[in-house]
Structures are given as C-alpha cells and as structure tokens.
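[Automated response] Your request has been received and processed.

Submitted sequence:
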Amino acid sequence: MNFGKGVQNKVHAHDCEQILVVTSGKGVIATEAEDELVVVGDIVIIPAGEKHWHGATRDSEFSHLYVTRLGSKMTQLEK
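Generated structure:
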C-alpha cells in the first residue's frame, strides 16, 4: 500500500492477524491503546480483531506490504 503525505486509511479490523512490513517513508500504526511511529524495515503484527488504522506522517510518504490469511475479511469501522 502507498500513502501520500498525511494520508491514512479508516479505522478497521481484520478477522485474522495482519503483518505490515514498512518499505518506504515514515508512518503511523494506531490502535485504541497507542500510536506507533514506524520507518523502513519495521515489521508490525496486528492481532486479529484489533481496531486500528495506518498511514503516512504529515511530512513523509509511506509504503508498506501487508500479509493476511487468504480469504480473510476486513471490517471498516469508521465511515
């Protein structure tokens, strides 16, 4: 996924674990408990069912690969 400066996705959850591998820029992975700054090379594991969002910081574009189970479901929790 690629995000322009300051762009983020909406709050969502997955029915399985999601793994994010940061490939460029700086981003934020946010849950109900915390916001984590991530940079190139970071690997983040988001547990199944955890409400979260991810996106670029205001001053950097951001890209990451993501891995989920084949056929997994994502539920958008924010309109």
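Summary generated for your ticket: Residues 13 and 51 are 5 Å apart (CA to CA). The chain has one domain: 2-69.
If you did not submit this request, please reply to this message.
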